[in-house]
Specification:
By secondary structure, the protein is α/β, with parallel strands linked by helices. The protein folds into two domains: 202 residues, 3-Layer(aba) Sandwich (Rossmann fold); 83 residues, no CATH class. The chain has 16 helices and five strands. The protein has a five-stranded parallel beta sheet with strand order 2-3-4-1-5, sandwiched between helices. Helix 12 runs antiparallel to helix 13, helix 12 packs across helix 14 and helix 14 runs antiparallel to helix 15. The chain is globular. It starts with 14 loop residues before the first strand and ends in a 7-residue tail after the last helix.
């Protein structure tokens, strides 16, 4: 019934918020709603923006994976101009394109990196991606509406949430882009408060029976994780792309050592890239996990301490940094390194 209600609107709002339980077939409901508001020429994009599903750029990477082949074919000049931003969301492009004008943070080996990007770099990347869409869509199909479905928007990373908010603010009305945001029940007020007040929105509650989900067997999860690791063969770009799935499988398998390994990879990778809020997601509770799993590995423990401190410093969170340094860091600091 909620979907049928959309017929009463003479014009589309800037974004819809559709509340439904994760146990329901929410993605199907969102897709149905998108089709119900779409005209004959409308392009519909379906994305899962939940952090656990796709990492810091979840949903943004899905959108650009869909449109990049067209941009590459039609506007190679834009690809060259925005390759720095594109490799953030589509890391495999590093295998085909040379990123020019790299600085010391980009060029230094991982073990030698001692400086990090300013926190605002990630937001400049984000705005650059929106600039790319503007330059391409305004020439190619400025009058063709887009409907972008963002399932799990309430569980998205800071980068993903901010990207789609800024996309709606900057280009929504100008280039006919409408968002459909799938969230958990009772989350609409929080999501509406996140968007600029001048943007129009409609919140709907969708109901559907829960779908039974068969839990994965830990042994099967471990085998699938091992197979994925074998296919990746230690390639850091592939690890980055498959990190959410690796973490999911090793979590089901109950392998704390593997969770430590890959969460540390996430903390290290996104800290260095300047995505400090999202790096903190991987670092949450990681120090305790390291002390539990590998208490004698001083290098790992120090690496976690330093990178969590760098997150606080990058974000300007002095009080949180001091609290961490004087609490968990001091408590778990390897004895041989105490001053």
């Amino acid at each position: 019934m909620a979907i049928a209600m959309t017929a009463q609107y003479s014009g589309l709002p800037d974004f819809f918020i559709l509340e439904a339980s994760e146990e329901s077939p929410r993605r199907d409901l969102l897709a149905r709603h998108a089709r119900s508001i779409a005209g004959p020429a409308t392009r519909i994009f379906l994305a899962n923006t939940a952090f656990e599903a796709g990492g810091p750029w979840a949903g943004v990477n899905t959108l650009f994976a869909s449109i990049f082949p067209e941009i590459e074919s039609e506007r190679p000049d834009l690809v060259e101009k925005h390759i720095v931003e594109l490799v953030y969301v589509l890391p495999r492009l590093r295998q085909r394109y040379t990123v020019k004008h790299r600085n010391l943070t980009d060029l230094a080996p991982i073990e030698e990196r001692s400086r990090f990007f300013a926190a605002d770099r990630a937001y400049r990347v984000l705005q650059g991606l929106i600039d790319l869409i503007q330059k391409w869509k305004s020439v190619k199909d400025a009058d063709i509406p887009w409907v972008i479905v963002c399932d799990g928007y309430d569980k998205a990373s800071m980068m993903s949430r901010f990207f789609f908010k800024e996309l709606a603010r900057r280009l929504g009305q100008r280039l006919h882009i409408t968002l459909v945001l799938g969230v958990a029940p009772e989350m609409s007020p929080k999501i509406q408060a996140f968007f600029p007040t001048h943007l129009t929105s409609v919140a709907l509650k969708l109901t559907a029976p829960a779908e039974p989900r068969e839990p994965m067997d830990p042994a099967e999860a471990e085998q699938r994780a091992l197979s994925l690791e074998a296919a990746i063969a230690g390639d850091r770009i592939e690890i980055q792309l498959n990190l959410p799935e690796l973490l999911r499988l090793w979590n089901v398998a109950g392998r704390k050592d593997k969770l430590l390994e890959y969460r540390h990879f996430g903390l290290e990778t996104y800290n260095t890239l300047g995505l400090y809020e999202d790096a903190q997601y991987y670092g949450r509770g990681l120090l305790d996990l390291a002390v539990e799993v590998t208490p004698s590995d001083e290098r790992m423990i120090w690496s976690i301490i330093v990178k969590i401190m760098m997150c606080h410093m990058g974000l300007g969170n002095a009080e949180a940094g001091i609290e961490f340094a004087e609490g968990p860091a001091l408590k778990n600091m390897p004895a041989s390194r105490h001053l």
